[in-house]
Design a protein that fits this description.
The protein is of the alpha/beta class and 260 residues long. The chain has helices at residues 30-44, 67-73, 88-94, 110-116, 133-136, 144-152, 154-163, 169-174, 187-199, 203-217, 221-236, 241-257, and strands at residues 6-11, 14-19, 51-56, 60-62, 99-103, 106-108, 120-124, 128-130, 166-168, 180-182.
Amino acid sequence: MSDSVLLVDEHDGVAELTLNRPSRKNALSRDLRKALVYAFYELAGQRRPPVIILTGAGDAFTAGLDLKELSVTGISGGNDEDPPEIDVVRQMGAYPSPIIGAVGGVAVTGGFEIALACDLLIASTNARFADTHARVGILPGWGLSQRLPRLIGIGRAKELSLTGNYIDAEQAERWGLVNRVVAPEELLPACRALAQDMASCEPDVMRSYKRVIDDGYAMNFADAVAMESARSKEHARTVSPEDIAARRSNVQARGKTQKR
């Protein structure tokens, strides 16, 4: 396998990013964080930014920030040692196309935060999740304390974050943390099939739809519905009857044949 800390494989409207420090459980060293930010930035700059599958080499997704490195360099204020230009989660949040997290092993603390920054998660039966910030003695700085309660409920989030306990893939699915759980050998094929489904949509609309969902989720319900209505009307002015007619037959044909 390549010595690069991040592997990038792009084809057919999909890019696979593989965290490649398996001997360190894909711990997020400064070099790996910088490589991730650069990759997301470069892919976002394409005319049609690809759907991304983010995964880890070996038996881990990522064990979080590299504590061995931080024990030498030090840390102040959670993840504040990173200036904005190498803030991985911020760069992921700005990425216009969907990000699918393929979690095949542990996703811990900062690695859990990276997983939560994905648009959706597919886990193998080997996946495990834990928030050990309170045990390490730092506070989260990439959004975990706010994303996790919104995703699984405040009581469950407090149980995870205030104990540092692990949950397995099946419990993560029951709690709504992951979209589905598959056998280890099916993890990447399942993610690739899902990514291709997304990439086959109208690309500009898919990206606009993702933004509507994300922007609305941060609002109260009434404001979010009003925002959706306004953007829908604005977009409708750019769509002709011929556009709809051209796509209608494809939609109908897919509805008859789709089995997933």
